[in-house]
Amino acid sequence: MRVIKMSPSAREYILSRGYRAVTVELEGLGGCCCPLFLSQPVLGFPDNPEHYRVFEVGGIQVFVDKTAAPGPGEVEIALAQGEQGMYLEVRGLHHLAENGLCGK
Question: This protein's superkingdom (predicted)?
Fold first, then answer.
């Protein structure tokens, strides 16, 4: 994987909550034939760090699931606004298997 970027607001969000790490998990949704995997950032360290690649971004450790692969653009952790308030989102990652599924 290339470089992971983090927006200044995402960095401040993580640090203001007392964390120095974020874990990017892949959550599988959908059926067995064509599942969809969403990148889900979770504040803190993973339970099984051996299943993750580690990056240092602005003084924060970022653990990325080893089955994640970058898309054609940048990989970025950003702060977003939703109906429930502010949350972290990851852009530019997908599951390695998605490249070969559903006739792609």
Answer: Bacteria
CATH number, domain with residue 89? 2.60.300.12
Count of structural domains, the chain: 1
- SS (HEC) of the chain: CCCEEECHHHHHHHHHCCCCEEEEEEEEECCCCCCEEEEEEEECCCCCHHHEEEEEECCEEEEEECCEEECCCCEEEEEEEECCEEEEEEECEEEHHHHHCCCC
| pLDDT tens sequence across 59-74 | 999 999 988 888 777 8
**Predicted confidence (pLDDT) per residue in 33-46, tens digit:** 666 677 889 999 99
* Cβ neighbourhood burial of 14 (10 Å; 0-12, 13-18, 19+): buried
Give the predicted TM-score (pTM) of the model. Answer: 0.82
